[in-house]
Amino acid sequence: MQQKLPVITEPEQKEKSNKKIIIVLVVLFLVIFTIVFFNSQLSKIKEVQITGIQYVTSSEVSEKADIKVGDSFFFQSKDKIEQRISELSAIHTVNVSRKFPGIYKIAIVEHDVTAFEIKQDGTIVALLSSGAEIPTLSTQAQINDKPVLTGWTEERQADKLLLLKQLTLIPDHQLTDVSEILPYPTVAFPDRILMYTRTRFEVITSISLLQEKIEAMNGVIESQSPGKITLLLADTYVPFDVELEENTGNE
After folding, report:
1. Which of 95, 131, 201, 242 counts the highest number of beta carbons within 10 A?
2. What's the angle, vertex CA 73, arms to CA 68 and CA 79, rounded to 5?
3. What one-character-per-residue DSSP string does 110-172 give?
4. Per the CATH hierarchy, to which homologous superfamily does domain 44-110 belong?
5. 113 and 144 in contact (C-beta within 8 Å)?
6. Do 44-110 and 113-250 fold alike per CATH?
């Protein structure tokens, strides 16, 4: 009786060796490609685009961002760039995005202008809702859109910041007639202010009551002739012609 001999298979060493060589070549190619790529201009920042700025300069933003043309395009943290730029007092929000190859886009939204201030030397600065002071070449038309603060000395800076916060909370259309705001403190009302309007009213109120009283002020202005309005614990209105008659009678 004949027995079948087992089939003898060819060794697979040659095939395995070929696979190893291919793997080594692929890895080597990837390493070389990576080295060449990250040393090429394709991996570098070639342009930084900054949009939305009015009160800060491109150089200020670039300095805070700490990125420049020629830096690595990939090894930058967008979150950290946004955090650094947000340290600028005029910045409300910032968004950093990348577009390959080589473009960084920095989109900025600044704080709104709440008021203007005339300094003691006569210069005009824009006061942002954040409290930041920005030098400006504003035209008279621009100033006419916002209240102008005068007489706010260094001792009154804390009150000025509170005033700016209150102005930020009030809709723009309720402030269009307010032309000038001055500190006018008393012992009873250390945050008292005096406001002049473009329709020739004088308004006495306080910073803490301003938001609450602004609607009543506009109601008097829209329905009465120019006069003096007091909006504190009690609200009063005296037309200038009556006040003039009373002063004349007392002489």
Report:
1. 201
2. 85
3. EPPEEEEEE-TTS-EEEEETTS-EEE----HHHHTTS-EE----GGGHHHHHHHHHHHHHS-G
4. membrane protein fhac (3.10.20.310)
5. no
6. no
Q: Which residues of 219-240 are buried (b: 16+ CB within 10 A; e: fewer)?
A: ebbeeeeebbbebeeeeebeee
pLDDT-derived band at 40 (thresholds 50, 70, 90) equals low
Residue listed under structure tokens 């005029």: 90
pLDDT digits (tens, 9 = 90+) for 124-142: 888 988 888 887 755 554 6
All structural domains of the chain with their residue ranges: 44-110, 113-250
- pLDDT level of residue 244 (50, 70, 90 thresholds): low
pLDDT beyond 90 at 29: no
**pLDDT at residue 89, as a whole number:** 86
Q: What pLDDT, on the 0 to 100 scale, is given for residue 170?
A: 94
Q: How distant, in Å, are the alpha carbons of 13, 29, 84, 234 from that of 16?
A: 5, 20, 54, 97
| Token output for 228 | 């003096």
Roughly how many angstroms between the first and final C-alpha of the chain, as a whole number? 152
Mean pLDDT is lowest, of 22-26, 90-94, 176-180, 185-189, for 22-26
From the list 160, 127, 156, the residue with the least C-alpha distance to 143 is: 127
